[in-house]
Amino acid sequence: MDDEEPAIEPLVHISGVSFSDFVQVDEDVAVSGSLTDGEILSATDTNENSNDEDEDDTSEPLAEVSVKEARSSFDTLRTFCLQNESDEKAFQALFLLKKIIEQSEQQQCTLKQTSLTEFFRQINYFTL
């Protein structure tokens, strides 16, 4: 270190600080410490709570998409893939999307509310 002192010392004196003060400036600074288990747990609990709050603030409700809109979007994507000569993976993904849309269509058909006349027609059929 004695070899380096003459090269650094003129630079240190420019700011009005002696070389020994410059080297020893951070001797009293705490660079490490030990935490108790309670301090560690409270720090992690605080971080988890703040992360949960951040996620709640940024999440927005998704807009309702009808099956008809999904079908239209699917047709647009399929046309896009055909026009751009997409690879097989794109068509496999489209196939999966088509199955999801078709399942939603089937569920929607089975959950469709019957008319009053249809309802009473079924009751009369069972009572006769």
Blueprint of the fold:
Layout lengths: L4 H10 L4 H5 L13 H22 L8 H17 L4 H23 L5 H12 L1
Helix pairs in contact: 4-5
Please provide a written account of the structure.
- The chain is mainly α.
- The protein has a domain at 67-127.
- It has helices at residues 5-14, 19-23, 37-58, 67-83, 88-110, 116-127.
- The protein is elongated.
- It starts with a helix and ends with a helix.
- Residues 36-62 are annotated as: Disordered.
Summed up, what is this model?
The protein is built from 6 helices and no strands. With 128 residues, the protein is mainly α.
Descriptive tags:
128 residues, mainly alpha, 6 helices, 70% helix, 0% strand
Give helix % range: 55-70%
Cα-atom Rg, whole angstroms?
36 Å
Count helical runs.
6
The average pLDDT score comes to 76
Q: Strand count, sense and closure of the main sheet? A: none
Number of strands: 0
* Spans of at least 5 consecutive residues with low confidence: none
Q: Determine the N-to-C terminus distance.
A: 109 Å
Shape label: elongated
Order of helices and strands: HHHHHH
Strand content range: under 5%
Category by helix and strand content: mainly alpha
